[in-house]
Amino acid sequence: TFFQPTENSKKDFLLFFDEITPQLKEKIEEEIQEKGAVKWYGVVKAVFKRESEDGGEERMTPYFRSNVQIELVGDTIGDHVPVSFSKILEAVDEFIRRGSGWILDKIVHFELCIAKYQPLRASSYIILPKKLADKKAVLNIQNEDQKCLVWCLIAHKLNSLAHNSYRVSHYTPHEQEIKLDVVECPVPLNKIPIVERLNNLRINVFGYEENEVFPLYVSKRVDEECVNLLLIANEETQHYCLIRNMSRLLGDLTKHNDKHHYCYRCLHRFAKDEILKEHLQYCSEHSPQHMKMPEKGENFIKFQNVHYQHPLPYVIYADFESLIVKEVHTSGNTEIIARHEACGYAYVIIGPDGRSVKPISVYRGKNAVQHFMENILKEKEELAAKLTSIVPIHMTPQDELDFRSATHCSICKKALKGERARDHDHQTGRYRAALHSSCNLKFRLSKKIPVVLNNLKNYDEHLIMQEIGKLKDYEISVVPTTMEKYVTFSLSKRYHKFKVSLNFVDSFQFLSTSLEKLVQNLTPDKFNILNENFPHHNISLLLRKGVYPYEYMDSHQKFDEERLPSIDSFEITLTGSGISDEDYRHAQTVWNYFNLKNMGEYFLKQTTSTSPTLMQAKSSNISFI
């Protein structure tokens, strides 16, 4: 059964799931009435897209599957549907995290796969596989009835080590000691919890296939006596056996004949019981599983995306400042005391040589976000022209000698055999290295331009997104963390055969440290962008964290004030904190040193210094590729 999204929900998983829930419950209910107990799972087919290496568009159609859910007659259907949706959303999140740059284009459909539920039932004797029998870890009772579970539980209680303990006659006199009540033999796997409760036991059941042991059912009970069972099968039936020695079954004893301690949920081995107990705190949160390591020869992974080694030639660092306009009213249970209104910004563009492409751009005035977007899009047009043009290669005699004498590709590090290619910087024409032709084709210059803002996700993005929504000629893409916060968002536009995009990112996601602390780790000579824009000045004054009277500055008129406000004006109401006398003296020093005339000039000085400082502090730790 397929459920299709509507036009409104085809790009929103939450909206889509909300739409199909009533239909899904109704269909499952119909199947239960027809078949009795059923098991089902859901599969979502979706289309994702991202920019390809050549500047085009790459698409993928993954499928995301939920866990299998079992619905018995009388169960409440609604309990399992949201659990399935949550599992699918987890799979989608994992796909986006690992896929690097994938963005949802559309949801195709949700497929409901449903069948009659026939749980595993164990009955009469089956011969153990030789490899399993040789471990001498399992007691296989030779019963001809369907009560193998009962005989295993009695054998565990008696703990008989007689050489003929496989005979069922040892256990029949004790049959009444095991309570089954309404549970009928052969006992299916889904009835094990009832048997546990009736007999005050903790029962784990494991399967065996292709020489591998794996968990089928792991008890949630903690303090009760533990019984481990092995469920083996042939073409006709299944059969419970009693596991007497888990260490023998899952592995060998150590050279000191010490037993290993195993987690029954994931079958991971531990040397000490204390370590196992610590592990169980986390493993118990997940479903039972078996960890299988890769085969020899397949146990290495290698970096393949060589084009991601290419540093991006242009990066824009930006910063916004706002007025805190007083505004007292209530909205529901929220009391609003002020609103933030962007009043200015500054940005600097860093080129391939690590220097600023042009002087720092700074603005103070109304409609600051609109003004920023207009300017930044103009910058994008200029940079796009550079990114989409290729400067021919220029080879010096030394470059030619290096190319001919190279023995290994500088990208994949493998030997250069046969055809080789000259790799060069498309922006400068400078020769870089000898590569395989295939590596050279992959090593393309990205057409992405990062726009880096500090704390974008929690602040600046809310200002910018209001303006982005007005744009019509750009493709807008987001990678969300919630409905209101994004990991990144981008504006893309095609130039000839290339798609060039502005990618807005939050520097705090790469280095979650304050700008002040990052600056303290660098010496003043590292801040070449500040030196370029403030020549012959003592830039150490600008490297110290600036102080600004945010709450005091509640209107554009205050930019005309010709003196620094009092120290009390720097207090922040929400935190109840202000600035120290030393900080205030520093603000006065900056005012006097740069001969500032009013608060507008003080604002511009602080804003102008922030974006290059952010750039120098972050770029010393982060390389955008």
TrEMBL record:
Task: Name one matching Pfam family.
Answer: Endonuclease_7
**What residues form the membrane-spanning segments?**
none
User: What InterPro entries does the database record attribute to this sequence?
Assistant: Endonuclease_7, Endonuclease_7_sf, His-Me_finger_sf
Q: Which domain of life is it from?
A: Eukaryota
- Put simply, this protein is called C2H2-type domain-containing protein
From which organism does this entry originate? Araneus ventricosus
